[in-house]
Amino acid sequence: MKYAFSSTLLLATPLLAAPSPVVVDLAERQANTTCAGLPATYSAVSSAKLPDPFTSASGEKITTKAQWPCRRLEILQMFYKYELGDKPDKPTVTGTVSSTSISVTASTGGKSISFSASVRMPSGATGPVPAIIAYGGASLGIPSNVATITFNNDDMAQQTNTGSRGKGKFYDLYGSSHSAGAMTAWAWGVSRIIDVIEADTSKKIDAKRIGVTGCSRNGKGAFVAGALDERIALTLPQESGSGGAACWRISDSEHSAGKNIQTASEIVGENAWFSSRFDTWAKSNVNGLGVDHHMLAGLVAPRGLLVIENNIDWLGPVSTTGCMRTGALIYQALGAADSFGFSETPGHNHCQFPSSQQAELTAFINKFLLGRSVSTAGVDKSDQTSVKASSYITWTTPTLT
Ligand code: MCU
């Protein structure tokens, strides 16, 4: 089934058609009108190695850049189907941007929610200025010439434990049994903040120069936000570990080797970050997942992505290094290797950004938010020096033409 814009066309789908494919948000459908989308019958793979980003669900080899948007859409749909739950279409959104706050009202189906995010503008700036949306506040230094937007993601979707499922403003709007896990609900909230920034006639914030960050659980969330909204120019997940920069399959193999590392099976018993759709896969069939988190980086490509990590066992330094060195291959294939960076360093506490990662952070902010012509090439730092993508894959990386 090709994606269609209007509900009339969607209703015109034959009644005997296979179950409808996973929903993707309207912006994605509009950007990809010619894509077949993930077949509704697509189910599972069986591979302890990381799935091939360059072979479509129907077995077609991806050899050109022009094929990538449709493959990207399939990957996105797989993330919704297996892990994240659906991100709803843009509802009716209104709001305001002041120099201290962004307020958002989102309405659909006769219901409405309002939330606000605080803003710290560069002193004396009238705009438009670049901005970084920080989940729960930034754990890294945001330069004074970039605005900080502090997003209260817990208000959108709670994350105390598994009992948080379905609680928060997102679920007030869409119902407590909506498939979206907390990270998808947060990403939806970020998209609504960007809607308001785009519509703001005073243009205080430059909608084309928006970054997103968060640390730890909020780093997982920031990574997902960057993957789910192509308007985000720079994604800066910090110490996201499992559920973010780590790959489920590598974390499982590290766990089997005796490491104290967070696995998919553990994570779904800890919190409501993922959709309940993920439960069965996480508990009993990680190797059946059509995706792994190298493809989360692939969803962000070719936009700016600096993955910041720590060598804490629970985060999985081998897993984050191996997973993101594999994600880097997707950027390489797209001819955008310099838009991706991975930086994992030891010797600092969790979410205490060390000076040893400052140079790469500054370079990525300068290039992707401040528009300066600086190099972000070759940012590949890890104390896990022997970890290579080739240990975890069986596919080869094409150069997409
Ligand atoms: C790294 O992020 C999480 C981790 O996934 C959890 O298992 C642990 O409980 O909390 C970490 C975190 O968010 O620390 C602030």
From TrEMBL:
Molecular function terms, GO-annotated: carboxylic ester hydrolase activity
Domain of life: Eukaryota
Reaction(s) catalysed by this chain's protein: a 4-O-methyl-alpha-D-glucuronosyl ester derivative + H2O = 4-O-methyl-alpha-D-glucuronate derivative + an alcohol + H(+)
EC id: 3.1.1.117
GO BP term, pick one: lignin catabolic process
Signal peptide (from-to): 1-17
Keywords (A to Z) from UniProt: Hydrolase, Lignin degradation, Serine esterase, Signal
Domain 4-O-methyl-glucuronoyl methylesterase-like: 104-335
Protein family according to the UniProt entry: Belongs to the carbohydrate esterase 15 (CE15) family.
The name this protein goes by in its record: (4-O-methyl)-D-glucuronate--lignin esterase
